[in-house]
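Supplementary Text 2. Reproducibility record for the structural model of the 550-residue chain.

All settings were left at their defaults, and a single model was retained for analysis rather than an ensemble. We include the record here because the model underlies the residue-level annotations in Supplementary Table 4.
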Amino acid sequence: MELKHYLSYLQNTMTNKWLDLAMKDLDGATQYTYGELAEQIARLHTTFRLLGIKEGDKIALCGRNCSNWGVLFLATATYKAVTVSILPDFTAEGVHALVNHSEAKLLYTGPNVLKKIDVKEMPTLSAVILMDDFSMQSAANEEIEKAYAQVDSAFAEEFPNGYSQTNLNYPTDNIDELALLNYTSGSTGNPKGVMLTHKNLSGNIDFAVKEIPHKPGDKVLSMLPIAHMFGLMFEFLYQVCDGAEVYFLTKAPTPTTLMKAFAQVHPFMILTVPLVIEKIIKGKVLPIIKKPVMKVLWNTPGIKCLLHKKVRNTLLQAFGGELRFLIIGGAALNEEVEKCMHDMHFPYCVGYGMTECAPLITYENWKKYLYRSCGKGIVGMELRVDSEDQTKKEGELQVRGVNVMTGYYKNEQATRETFTEDGWMRTGDLGIIDKDGNLFLRGRSKNMLLSPNGQNIYPEEIEDKLNSLPLVTESVVVDREHKLVALVYSDPSLAKADVLQGRTVDEVMKDNLEKLNKVMPVYSKVTAIELVEKEFEKTPKRSIKRFMYK
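Retained model, structure tokens:
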């Protein structure tokens, strides 16, 4: 079956939902109906044309999650230009480097980024434009300034009777062309420019539209970084292509802010990373069910079903009351947290993807999802494990299919190293695939440690056990002269009297070390726990930047 271009979905949705709300900033600054969205896209096309932007030219977006970021992405895609998505958290030097590396002609950015960058350091740019209100902040020459001042009159001349559904005509003949340069978040080093085509994006959107169809009135909260593929594809692009309402969280996603936003938006779907859901479950649910009486009742036949239902419904209400899908990705989910969610039949699943696959590789509907897995390969994607028996012996996961990137921009060496001779992409992740096609990940190949006796040690597995112990918020296991040391961050708010029981935090960690080593094989035992004062540095998808810790 021929793959449907995501812009076909978008055009159809705009035509049929012209007066319906498409997206809105939660701070109330900006909102668009689908008709207003279409008109703004057309106005930006006029802007691009007057500024001399041609098909294939790069347009960089570097700003917070907001409606105008979404408009700019769609305008660039429908103009046949290439979006360069840059995380606003990058340093000024980082922004300069990525704009120059991509050879972007325009930069749309927010005020916070604008304050720290130096336009003189980005000679490829014709103009820098403020994302919030589309005001020009700098131009390469006077001709650019004069052209920009003519946008309104040119648009009026082009559409003298106003813009309507009949004017919609989005391109679908470019499915194999470059659509997006998405720079990786750098969890293991320097960012690389992932080249994604319209086909890569369409593979993700086509799957999502068919697998997770919307109901009328469905809403979603955009809280993951929209410059990162997980947030871009599934909190924004899939949603507008299939007619949902997107609400952009324009503030930092703190637990308090998120809970208020959930209550306001009532999302049908929440996309999150393990760290967020683990904080909620560890902070709100586990302390209750770990109490002696509750612990017994939680596993007592007859009573447990009622108790599980009560906790599940309470949690669903905390997420806004309309939740049908909780999709977790970006890293492994803590086993204790997942068991709790599994016990209460919460509508969750753990998926797997990466920027290089735009991002989806595996998924399974929560009703069929297999506990502790990452789901199954989605339609259009093939998976294999480089081992003697992929069902029993772990090896590197390799993939190929419609979602796989064409390579890294201006980096032939990295591209060659990423693909096998027979055309499969190396993910760098280790795991097995069972006989039914379920993927189980063990960890990153770059993170794997080798014990003195030759045993493979997966730090993520040790960290998962450790993170379930008292006062442990997050951890990183490192190898120091062939001895395993656990670096632990303990949130001070966890140090409550009932947890401490008259002990110091150091004494609790000593007990944790004993408990941990009782369940670990000899070759994976940890010699010491070291407390760190601050949370570990993380990528935008909330994965720990492990390369920073030794």
